[in-house]
């Protein structure tokens, strides 16, 4: 069965610390992978995407993600978080059809 | 222009009202989507329009009626809603829904409250 999992419901990090948000999927091939961010009451903004090529992809706002086929993972990272990064982060996957399948999301809280 | 706009931002309606949500994009995208998002949950797909034709209806109740008058506009007509329909309604568009690598661009959403 095709699925996407974000194991961490809520993560708290200190401003300036590094961040890694996890995303795992279940699929027999390489899907199309996306990370979106959503601030409270707002729409979703695309941070980055991967579908082929270099497995380390750079996105906006200083985020990057690494695709690891052997682990079926697409984890999002940022070396130093800012208070403005506090938001909900969704991993989303297209398994080769018209639909995006979203993970349950990870809420990021930044403490001073 | 890489923006998807949605109106209104907020909408409060009674269970007997008829209202419409509007979505617009001028990126030349040929696929448009409606999602429903409850608090602390991911977006749930409702409808997909591809080249102005309804291609996916995720078993949405008939009190929600989508319409795509042209390639830039998408409407969602609401009638006889229930309080549990209160949610953030998101519109999105993409170049083409047949290619999975095309990212979806989301609008800011309409916050709907049904009394």
Walk me through the topology.
The complex is a heterodimer of chains A (112) and B (115).
Chain A: E1 3-5, E2 10-14, E3 19-21, E4 24-26, E5 32-38, E6 44-50, E7 56-58, E8 64-68, E9 73-78, E10 87-94, E11 101-102, E12 106-111
Parallel strand pairs in A: 2-12
Antiparallel strand pairs in A: 1-4, 3-9, 5-6, 5-10, 7-8, 8-9, 10-11, 10-12
Chain B: E1 4-7, E2 10-13, E3 18-25, E4 31-37, E5 44-50, E6 53-57, E7 64-70, E8 73-79, E9 87-94, E10 105-106, E11 110-114
Parallel strand pairs in B: 2-11
Antiparallel strand pairs in B: 1-3, 3-8, 4-5, 4-9, 5-6, 7-8, 9-10, 9-11
Task: Describe the fold and architecture.
The complex is a heterodimer of chains A (112) and B (115). Chain A has 112 residues and is mainly β. Chain A contains no helices and twelve strands. In chain A, 0% of the residues lie in helices and 52% in strands. In chain A, the strands form three sheets. In chain A, strands 2, 5, 6, 10, 11 and 12 form a six-stranded mixed β-sheet that branches. In chain A, strands 3-9-8-7 form a four-stranded antiparallel β-sheet, with no helix packed on it. In chain A, strand 5 (32-38) and strand 6 (44-50) form a beta hairpin. Chain B is built from no helices and eleven strands. In chain B, strands 2, 4, 5, 6, 9, 10 and 11 form a seven-stranded mixed β-sheet that branches. In chain B, strands 1-3-8-7 form a four-stranded antiparallel β-sheet, with no helix packed on it. The mean pLDDT of chain B is 94. Chains A and B meet through strand 5 and strand 6 of A and strand 5, strand 9 and strand 10 of B.
């Amino acid at each position: 069965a095709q699925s996407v999992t974000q194991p961490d419901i809520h993560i708290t990090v200190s401003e300036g610390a590094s961040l890694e948000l996890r995303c795992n999927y279940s699929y027999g091939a390489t899907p199309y992978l996306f990370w979106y961010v959503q601030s409270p009451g707002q729409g979703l903004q695309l941070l980055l995407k991967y579908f082929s090529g270099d497995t380390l992809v750079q996105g906006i706002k200083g985020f990057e993600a690494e695709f690891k086929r052997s682990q079926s993972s697409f984890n999002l990272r940022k070396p130093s978080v800012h208070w403005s990064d506090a938001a909900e982060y969704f991993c989303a996957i297209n398994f080769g059809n018209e639909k995006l399948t979203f993970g349950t999301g990870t809420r990021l809280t930044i403490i001073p | 222009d890489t923006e998807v706009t949605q109106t209104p931002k907020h909408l409060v309606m009674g269970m007997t009202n008829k209202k419409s949500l509007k979505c617009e994009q001028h990126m030349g995208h040929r696929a448009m989507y409606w999602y429903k998002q409850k608090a602390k949950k991911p977006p749930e797909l409702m409808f997909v329009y591809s080249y102005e034709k309804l291609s996916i209806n995720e078993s949405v109740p008939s009190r929600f009626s989508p319409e795509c008058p042209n390639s830039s506009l998408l409407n969602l007509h609401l009638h006889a809603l229930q309080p549990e329909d209160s949610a953030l309604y998101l519109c999105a568009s993409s170049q083409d829904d047949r290619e999975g690598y095309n990212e979806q661009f989301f609008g800011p959403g309409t916050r709907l409250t049904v009394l």
